[in-house]
Amino acid sequence: MSLYEQVTKEERFKIEHYLQEGLKGTAIAKLIDRPKCTVYRDINRNTKDWRHGYEHDKADETAKNRRKKKRSKLHQHQALQATVIEKLKSFWSPEMISGWLKLHYPKLYVCHETIYAFIYTSKIGIKKNYITL
Predict the structure, then answer these.
(1) pTM, whole model, 2 decimals?
(2) 83 and 36 share a domain?
């Protein structure tokens, strides 16, 4: 079994063309050598306006927008970020910070995995029992 590959722009062009010819998803899947569930999923997820039908360029744009990395709550809220950094400097673990946030600021709660990801993707470093900025 091969790994899943994203539907290409060329394949979306073919899907649009075959749909306009009146072919169903199963027949299209055979013609472009893709599983039928892949073709149906692409049609369903990337058709913005059913009145105009499936349009390959809009479908490709929709799929690309969906794949864009979303910023975490920590990267969006400076006050939350400052609080987490302060707690890290005070030698709190990400699990402790997460639990504290859940109790005191439920709307700003982030899980410990988000805090770890923030540490690894930002300029914060952890070196031998101390936090560096």
Answers:
(1) 0.55
(2) no
Whole-number pLDDT of residue 132: 56
- Residue 1 belongs to some domain of the structure: no
pLDDT average per 10 residues of sequence, the chain (133 residues): 76 94 94 94 84 87 81 87 92 95 93 91 62 56
Q: Does residue 106 sit within a domain?
A: yes
| Enclosing domain of residue 45 | 9-67
Q: Is residue 60 part of a domain?
A: yes
Alpha carbon 36 to its chain's center: 24
- pLDDT for res 131: 58
User: What token pair was written down for 64?
Assistant: 């690309």
